Amino acid sequence: MATNMNKVKSTNDLELKDRLVAINRVTKVTKGGRTFSFSAIVVVGNEDGIVGWGLGKAGEVTAAIAKGTEAAKKNLIKVPIIKGTIPHMQVSKFGGAQVFIHPASHGTGVKAGGAMRAVLESVGVTDVLAKSKGSSNPHNLVKATIVALSELRDAQTVAQNRGVSLDTVFNG
């Protein structure tokens, strides 16, 4: 799975915006009848390289969204963004969902669907090509996208890990 999870330490000074990805009404059948509650998956990000996701469950929609937002703030990651796009192509999988994220030139926009779009826009990517294969379950798509973004590395990180200069990374 994710090898270099860049966890963000504190959320106090971040200006996070939340996006509701999906909401489900779930039913529990009891002896007295059916009990309804709600499950919400929320993505938060500062649109400048930090993103996180959370799942909230409650008896009311607003409470479920609030719980999801709080959960999302607890597992934020830092993503390298270079000139509005990602540094390199990435393929990732979670459950039955597989995602393919490819950098794009300036002016392309976010070419992604549904749950992937919410994550990519929350992290601050403005130009990217993305494709989801397999399951369209929003939970697994969000998790696969987060895993793909957490595995991205920029040139400075690669040079630092290898113990060489940037020129050596690019020129061999």
How is the topology of this model organized?
Layout: E1 17-30, E2 33-45, E3 50-58, H1 61-74, E4 76-78, E5 90-94, E6 97-103, E7 110-111, H2 114-123, E8 128-134, H3 138-150, H4 155-162, H5 166-171
Parallel strand pairs: 7-8
Antiparallel strand pairs: 1-2, 2-3, 3-4, 5-6, 6-8
Helix pairs in contact: 2-3
What is the total tally of β strands?
8
> Biggest sheet, in brief?
4 strands, antiparallel
Strand arrangement in the largest pleated sheet = 1-2-3-4
Class computed from helices, strands and strand pairing: alpha+beta
- Helix share, percent: 25-40%
Mean pLDDT: 89
Q: Which sequence of SSEs, written as H and E, runs from N to C?
A: EEEHEEEEHEHHH
Uncertain spans: none
Give me the number of helical elements.
Answer: 5
Evaluate the radius of gyration: 18 Å
Which strand-content bin applies to the residues? 25-35%
From the N-terminal CA to the C-terminal CA, the straight-line distance is 28 Å
Shape: elongated
Task: Spell out the key features of this protein.
four-stranded mixed beta sheet, 172 residues, four-stranded antiparallel beta sheet, alpha+beta
Provide a short characterization of the protein structure.
The protein is of the alpha+beta class and 172 residues long. It has five helices and eight strands; from the N terminus they run βββαββββαβααα.
Report on the architecture of this protein.
- With 172 residues, the protein is an alpha+beta fold.
- It is built from five helices and eight strands.
- It has helices at 61-74, 114-123, 138-150, 155-162, 166-171, and strands spanning 17-30, 33-45, 50-58, 76-78, 90-94, 97-103, 110-111, 128-134.
- The chain has a four-stranded antiparallel β-sheet with strand order 1-2-3-4. Strands 5-6-8-7 form a four-stranded mixed β-sheet.
- The longest helix has 14 residues, at 61-74.
- The model has no long low-confidence stretch (mean pLDDT 89).
